[in-house]
């Protein structure tokens, strides 16, 4: 039997450790303890089990094994991986579909509480698709844009419209390889069809459609979701926020929103500021309402409203165990069914709101954008009424300030101002070597690894090597809890060149770019960097790497796939879902090699799995340096830059004043 982990092996977060101690005292299980108790199936974990028809399940455990139908290991692994990518793409893209329908309803005055907050973004996005903006009202433009976006889901032929926002070179490559999605739903359905019993049986052919399916997310549903969220709720710009369980308040009604749909969370934010609702809370004996978020909903309201984040994925149970949460309001994705049983030990109400998600034993208050504000008020009233039922409260003190909200629009602005907004300063900093390269560190928590450890270790080590880090999702909250998302934070641990850039521009060394769907912002940044010049003419030439150190969801696999298709090198920590077993070395790594070496030959990007964080860091730096060399850029030199800008100025500073003047002025 495997040794049970100590609490300090579960998480690096002191707040989480405190709550896990409480869980032990109360005899309550959590995802952490369940991960220890549930040994993973090594056959299924390696993608060697097929259960897609009634003749199985077929487990291929020995050399030469095939399924009842004759399916080989590589066919089964490719099918399993493609189905996971299809599910992840469906989840993100369904979010985008709902956002598009909300935009349509707002444009036609059919909603309660929503309005178009960013008209400039609306006009900019409309311009990508040649939608006429001059002489038209925002609602007229939004109506046509909504129709275009809704059509992308059911479109049967042609190309999804957002794909035209990639570089010209990348678009041509995709056309040559036949992987531009025709429509979001079209590709997800075909992925399921191809992987049905008796269908596609060439693993390379299957995985080509996996690329097409993943792209329907990144260059389809997710990009649509980000665009519409910005238009309706405002394009993020830096704000001050806080993160960790210490944001919960003993004397206030605590409402935690958890999931992924900003349509719900934005209305709860608005309702919580209603004087009538505040008065209702005070009449119940509280000082007011404290909202906070978990998971990607946390990122959505954090980067736009400054609403604090109670934590990332593995904090959902821990927040309830503080005894201070009146209601956890959930919508879709990453919501543990264990919450209802856990909440029965406390007073917390679990409130489901999506027509797609119900949990047995939870309170269901279905959300409808047409009556959004009133439903949000009703949800808050239920939470307020529950305040009187509190028992013992134990809230950790830990919380950290952070600056979220670095949209690609704001990065453009911060580098050049209103009249000279440009990615040129960023490209120049990379070309000179002040910034060695860029790492996008994204993704989930996984209770099978130490919470936040891999995220934070990789971030800290790359910062020391002058790598600028951008983050989304639960990875961003991990860094926030360690104080790495502040301008003054971590700069004593940052390489001299990167520190110089951060201090000059006034940015943190880690840029928070939003929720998981907002990984499309990273694609946009990389595309703009390529189009700016000096770093090649496509994403695959830029010294950049994407990492998901603690991944766990099918959505993460979809993100990885569309990033690979876009030309990025992507590294995942933890277990590969298609890894080989020691006695299967002859044929158990064909698929694993193909998504690395095969995809790299086709797209310039590749996907690899590395459980060891030191190996992740080494591979990241090696790739960045390889891309620098291919561009003819100077090799990274940690001693070249310093307090005054470059090595020559450092030498001059060491001279006596008169000699320094003579050296400078002659």
How large a portion of the residues is in β-strands, by DSSP E? 5-15%
Total of domains: 3
Indicate the overall shape.
globular
Number of strands: 16
Strand order, largest beta sheet = 6-5-4-7-8-9
Instruction: Look up the CATH topology of the largest domain.
Output: Rossmann fold
Class by SSE composition: alpha/beta
Question: What average pLDDT do the residues reach?
Answer: 93
Largest sheet: 6 strands, parallel
The CATH class of the largest domain turns out to be Alpha Beta
Distance between the termini: 76 Å
Structural overview:
This protein is an alpha/beta fold and 666 residues long. The protein has three domains: 73-233, Substrate Binding Domain Of Dnak, Chain:A, Domain 2; 241-389, 3-Layer(aba) Sandwich (Rossmann fold), CATH 3.40.50; 406-578 and 586-630, 3-Layer(aba) Sandwich (Rossmann fold), CATH 3.40.50.2030. The protein is 48% helix and 9% strand. The protein contains 27 helices and 16 strands. The chain has a six-stranded parallel β-sheet with strand order 6-5-4-7-8-9. The protein has a six-stranded parallel β-sheet with strand order 13-12-11-14-15-16, sandwiched between helices. α5 (73-107) packs parallel to α10. The chain starts with 6 loop residues before the first helix and ends with a helix.
Question: What descriptors fit this protein?
Answer:
666 residues, alpha/beta, Substrate Binding Domain Of Dnak, Chain:A, Domain 2, Rossmann fold, 3 domains, six-stranded parallel sheet, 27 helices, 16 strands
Can you summarize this structure?
This protein has 27 helices and 16 strands. It is of the alpha/beta class.
């Amino acid at each position: 039997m495997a040794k049970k982990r100590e609490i300090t092996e579960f998480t690096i977060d002191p707040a989480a450790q405190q709550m896990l101690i409480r869980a032990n005292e109360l005899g309550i299980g959590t995802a952490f303890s369940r991960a220890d108790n549930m040994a993973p199936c090594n056959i299924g974990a390696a993608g060697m089990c097929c259960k897609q028809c009634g003749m199985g399940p077929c487990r291929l455990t020995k050399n030469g094994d095939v399924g009842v139908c004759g399916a080989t290991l590589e066919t089964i692994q490719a099918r399993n991986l493609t189905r996971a990518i299809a599910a992840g793409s469906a989840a993100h893209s369904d979010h985008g579909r709902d956002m598009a329908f909300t935009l349509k309803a707002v444009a036609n005055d059919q909603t309660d509480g929503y309005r178009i907050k960013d008209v400039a973004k609306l006009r900019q996005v409309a311009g990508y698709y040649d939608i006429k903006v001059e002489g038209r009202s925002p609602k007229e433009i939004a109506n046509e844009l909504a129709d275009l976006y809704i059509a992308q889901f059911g479109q049967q032929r042609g190309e999804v419209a957002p794909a035209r926002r990639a570089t010209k070179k990348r678009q041509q490559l995709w056309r040559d390889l036949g992987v531009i999605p025709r429509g979001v739903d079209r590709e997800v359905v075909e992925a399921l069809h191809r992987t049905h019993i008796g269908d596609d049986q060439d693993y390379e052919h299957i995985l080509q459609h996996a690329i097409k399916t993943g792209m329907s997310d990144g260059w389809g549903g997710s990009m649509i979701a980000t665009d519409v969220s910005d238009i309706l709720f405002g394009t993020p710009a830096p704000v001050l926020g806080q993160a960790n369980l210490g944001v919960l308040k003993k004397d206030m009604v605590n409402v935690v929103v958890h999931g992924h749909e900003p349509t719900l969370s934005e209305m709860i934010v608005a309702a919580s500021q209603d004087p009538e609702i505040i008065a209702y809370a005070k009449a119940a004996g509280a000082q007011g309402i404290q909202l906070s978020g978990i998971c990607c909903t946390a990122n959505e309201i954090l980067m736009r409203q400054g609403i604090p984040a109670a934590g990332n994925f593995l904090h959902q149970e821990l927040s309830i165990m503080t005894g201070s949460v009146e209601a956890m309001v959930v919508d879709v994705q990453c919501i543990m069914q264990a919450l209802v049983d856990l909440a029965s030990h406390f007073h917390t109400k679990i409130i489901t709101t999506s027509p797609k998600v119900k949990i047995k034993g939870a309170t269901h208050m279905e959300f409808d954008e047409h009556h959004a504000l009133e439903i949000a008020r009703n949800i808050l009233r239920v939470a307020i009424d529950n305040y009187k039922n509190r028992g013992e409260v134990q809230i950790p003190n830990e919380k950290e300030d952070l600056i979220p909200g670095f949209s690609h629009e704001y990065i453009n602005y911060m580098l050049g101002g209103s009249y000279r907004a440009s990615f040129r300063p960023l490209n120049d900093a990379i070309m000179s070597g002040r910034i060695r390269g860029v790492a996008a560190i994204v993704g989930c928590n996984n209770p099978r690894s130490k919470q936040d450890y891999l995220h934070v270790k990789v971030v800290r080590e790359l910062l020391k090597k002058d790598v600028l880090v951008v983050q989304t999702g639960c990875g961003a909250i991990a860094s926030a809890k360690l104080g790495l998302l502040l301008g003054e934070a971590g700069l004593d641990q940052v390489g001299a060149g990167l520190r110089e850039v951060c201090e000059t521009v006034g940015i943190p060394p880690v840029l928070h770019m939003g929720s998981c769907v907002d990984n499309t912002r990273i694609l946009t940044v990389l595309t703009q960097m390529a189009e700016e010049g000096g770093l090649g003419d496509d994403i695959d030439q830029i010294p950049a790497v994407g990492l998901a150190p603690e991944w766990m969801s099918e959505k993460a696999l979809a993100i990885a796939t569309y990033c690979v298709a876009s030309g990025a090198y992507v590294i995942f920590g933890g277990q590969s879902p298609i890894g080989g077993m020691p006695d299967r070395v002859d044929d158990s790594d064909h698929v694993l090699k193909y998504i690395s070496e095969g995809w790299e030959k086709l797209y310039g990007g590749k996907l690899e799995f590395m459980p060891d964080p030191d190996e992740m860091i080494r591979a990241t730096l090696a790739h960045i340096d390889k891309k620098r060399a291919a561009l003819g850029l100077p090799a990274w030199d940690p001693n070249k830059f310093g307090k005054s800008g470059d090595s020559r100025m450092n030498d001059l500073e060491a001279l006596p004043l008169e000699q320094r003047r003579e050296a400078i002025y002659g």
